[in-house]
Amino acid sequence: MKVGINNNVEMLAGKLQQGAAQSAQQKQTGTAAEAVQASGRTAQAGVPVTVSKSVRSLDQGSKTSADIDLAKVQAMREAIANGSFSVNAGAIADKLLADAGMFLGTAART
């Protein structure tokens, strides 16, 4: 047996042909994202969908309430910039352990 000679030339040629055929087919059909968009366009003309009042109220509530206290964020930014911000590692660890215990307790019951 000689080093550097590949005895599986036919197998490699077949794989190259398959790859070329798949590339050609992808070019004809487009990408997966294009297929999803096309199916979405056809689905738009299909079944009508109604949204309940409770879902609408959830959407409106999310637009009006902020998940972030911007005043607190600004105060923390200023404290970090001034160098007066300190981290209470004990309080953070206690909160993490409490949250993990709650999560594990809930997961164990289900």
From TrEMBL:
Keyword Transmembrane on entry: no
Keywords: Bacterial flagellum biogenesis, Cell projection, Cilium, Flagellum, Repressor, Transcription, Transcription regulation
Entry keyword Transcription: yes
Occurrences of domain Anti-sigma-28 factor FlgM C-terminal (ranges): 50-97
Entry superkingdom: Bacteria
Functional description taken from the UniProt entry: Responsible for the coupling of flagellin expression to flagellar assembly by preventing expression of the flagellin genes when a component of the middle class of proteins is defective. It negatively regulates flagellar genes by inhibiting the activity of FliA by directly binding to FliA.
Family membership noted in the UniProt record: Belongs to the FlgM family.
Name of this chain's protein: Negative regulator of flagellin synthesis
Organism: Comamonas nitrativorans
Gene: flgM
